[in-house]
């Protein structure tokens, strides 16, 4: 009887410990991203030049895309730190309820949530694409399920594209010649069926650029 009571006490103790466990950093990050999924953007001015800032947040990560008036873009991956999105070069974005307040190059701007839904499904993107990577061509095949395989300099890069409300989330899965960890974003060249190209932003990846449908 004493043995049974002791086992029951141990079981209750372990159960209590499990219930009292604090969420891990990974769980907190996933929860934060899930609560903020969407596209946020604004136009602003930097040193006399028109700029467009787009922040795409998916369950897997957040990507900031900055485009100047000559249509040159850079993209940055975010890290969730203390309920904020932190980027390279001391750039950051803070949730302000209706959007994000972002500090970019010592300038604070507000990005509003864009709720317009696009009507391009992943299966409508399927086909063969090419992108110029490091002054060379990378060939990409994207199937109707959103899985892509790219060939670049004898390497195979695989990944997936999935639909969000206002953008496509891009996630490289593997690179036969190295690692691929970037989570990025893609925009179709229009909101009609059968788009002819994709704007793909994958920070640090050779696949970042305009995917032109062949």
Helix-strand layout with pairing:
Blueprint: H1 2-20, H2 25-35, E1 38-46, E2 49-57, E3 62-68, E4 73-77, E5 79-81, E6 84-86, E7 92-95, E8 99-104, E9 107-114, E10 127-133, E11 136-142, E12 147-152, E13 155-163, E14 168-175, E15 184-188, E16 197-201, E17 209-213
Antiparallel strand pairs: 1-2, 1-9, 2-3, 3-4, 5-6, 6-7, 7-8, 8-9, 10-11, 10-17, 11-12, 12-13, 13-14, 14-15, 15-16, 16-17
Q: How would you characterize this protein structure?
A:
Helix content is 14%, strand content 50%. It is built from two helices and 17 strands. The strands form two sheets. Strands 4-3-2-1-9-8-7-6-5 form a nine-stranded antiparallel β-sheet, with helices on one face. The protein has an eight-stranded antiparallel β-barrel with strand order 10-11-12-13-14-15-16-17. Residues 1-19 have low confidence and may be disordered.
Oligomer: single chain
Helix content: 10-25%
* Strand count: 17
Q: Structural class, from secondary structure content?
A: mainly beta
How do the helices and strands follow one another from N- to C-terminus? HHEEEEEEEEEEEEEEEEE
Specify the overall morphology.
Answer: globular
Largest sheet: 9 strands, antiparallel
Going across the biggest sheet, name each strand in turn.
4-3-2-1-9-8-7-6-5
Q: pLDDT below 50 for ≥5 consecutive residues: which ranges?
A: 1-19
Please tally the helical runs, counting DSSP H or I stretches of 4 or more residues. Answer: 2
What is the alpha-carbon Rg in Å? Answer: 21 Å
β-strand amount: over 45%
Gap between N and C termini: 76 Å
């Amino acid at each position: 009887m004493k043995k049974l009571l002791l086992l029951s006490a141990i079981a209750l103790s372990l159960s209590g410990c499990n219930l009292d466990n604090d969420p891990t950093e990974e769980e907190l990050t996933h929860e934060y991203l899930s609560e903020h999924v969407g596209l946020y953007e604004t136009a602003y001015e930097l040193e006399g030049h028109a700029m467009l800032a787009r922040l795409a947040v998916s369950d897997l990560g957040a990507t900031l895309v900055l485009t100047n008036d000559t249509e040159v873009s850079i993209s940055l991956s975010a890290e969730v730190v203390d309920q904020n999105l932190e980027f390279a070069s001391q750039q950051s974005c803070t949730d302000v309820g209706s959007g994000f307040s972002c500090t970019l190059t010592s300038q604070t701007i507000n990005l509003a949530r864009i709720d317009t839904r696009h009507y391009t499904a992943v299966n409508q993107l399927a086909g063969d694409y090419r992108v110029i990577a490091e002054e060379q061509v990378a060939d990409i095949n994207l199937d109707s399920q959103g899985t892509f395989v790219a060939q670049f300099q004898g390497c195979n890069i695989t990944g997936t594209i999935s639909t969000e409300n206002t953008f496509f989330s891009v996630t490289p899965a593997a690179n036969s010649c190295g690692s691929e960890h970037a989570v990025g974003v893609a925009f179709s060249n229009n909101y009609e069926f059968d788009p002819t190209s994709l704007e793909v932003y994958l920070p640090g990846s050779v696949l970042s650029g305009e995917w032109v449908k062949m």
